[in-house]
Amino acid sequence: MALRLFNTMSSQVEEFRPLRDHEVRMYACGPTVYDYGHVGNFRTFVAVDILRRFLRQSGYKVRHVMNITDVDDKIIRNSSREGVSVQQYTAKYEKAFLEDAAMIGIEEPTLVRATEHIPEMADFVAKLVEKGFAYRTDDGSYYFRIAKFPQYGKLSKRDFSGMLDGARVDIDEYDKDSARDFALWKAPKPGEASWDTAIGPGRPGWHLECSVMSMRELGETFDLHAGGEDLVFPHHENEIAQSESFTGKPFAHFWFHARFLLVEGEKMSKSLGNFFTLRDLILKGHKPSSIRYLLASVPYRHQLNFTFDGLKQAAVSVERLRNFRLRLVAGSFPSGASDETRSLAADTIARIKAALDDDLNTAQAQAAIFEMVRQANAAADARGIKQDDVAPLLEALTKFDEIFAVLDDDDAPKMKRVLQWAIAEGREKEISPELRDALQSDQRSDSDIEKKVEEMKAARTARDFKTSDAIRGELADAGILVEITKDGIRWRRK
RNA sequence: GGCGCGGUAGCCAAGUGGCAAGGCAGGGGUCUGCAAAACCCUUAUCGGCGGUUCGAUUCCGCCCCGCGCCUCCA
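^ Those are the sequences you sent over. The predicted structure of the assembly is below.
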């Protein structure tokens, strides 16, 4: 079976077939780096990441390009308010964004920056003017004339035909010819960042960078273009208009849009007090893996209600998966193999693939892995798991984690970096006791813990439970849980 | 107003024209020196009212509620 994806352009779930057999070229709209990324931003980026990972798992080579918008009105406003250059200002937030993305397991795409492609953008505008799709206004700005692109509105399903009739053609008009015409290039204003180019001084409009950079990196026509649902109109509609006018060819074949999330049942907004950056959540003591898991747990086209209760639930769910893997890795099992377990693992892998093939149904993929975990745990309790069953079960977990990326417990070091950042930024008071607790276990090295566990084992062999319990208590205080099972003794950080 | 999405157990949620996945929480057990983990059992008239159908949570209509986009917010 092959991947079927919802295509915003056709408003249908379609089979995804890239233009080249074994390669997918995708472009995702990235962040405007004017502030720290919030949980809503990362919902979209996690969705795209899951798509990318699944495409690769499905055997494609994936070329994934993402833009960094490092010049826009907010950036100009904020940087001048802080009295720093646009570049200084954006560098800080770009760095923060990349750290955050890595923190929640997003694989880094090829990054392209708007400010590094200014001359190309100017050339692009010049060509559009030449072809009659764009015009210059008296102040030196350039606009795209949507009257020249009759399909305008095809992505967002809007009808602009009424406006096309009345569109004027006077290129020396100071204002835009039509209210719907959008800016390709903005003339400089006093005190604003500006570039001198072949089409005059100024800065690029927002949509231009994505057309220019995606075509440069991926070709005039490529497979998939992604972003948050808000970008359908006007951003992607405008990209299509200017790109297809420029090349006379189709732009992207698939349009992938992630739905917005709610926070505690309401639209996230600063005024409601439910606006959280990723770092806010970490400072409250939530693990990156919990956040990623929760963001991934509702299929990307559905509204996700992001709640703190949900975050706790996600943490427990992830722990269950990790416990299971630990059981497989650290346990001892009788020799041999069982057909049931092998087919359980194989079925699970097939179910995960089928779920993701179905428009990335992550909820069903999760259900499949938990079904396996329950059955395998039950079998293990009954001594039904054999040595040779371990590898297939681990393989299923690996397939799952190639997409979800939550099994490896590297939360503590990541959270520690956020804590250090908070201190460096003078935001210590935002560091919650929960975060400090979560970092407890990070104080001890693995080898130190192993040594203690060996001491415990020795004490237990001597049936000296008092000593054994004392060591366990000491480790527990340090946030390390030692578990005694019939398969052996094992430990983990809480 | 235009276009679109959703309302499923205490919470997060999947799904189908024919006995309603999964996770979390709760209750009851089993295992266990203790602790943890794990397992078993247990919790749903699928927003309301009509209609189509042998049969609808799933299709259609109306209503109620929530949400999104409508020029730069992922």
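The first helix of chain A runs from residue 39 to 57. The CA atoms of residues 123 and 198 of chain A lie 7 Å apart.

Shout if you want it in another format.
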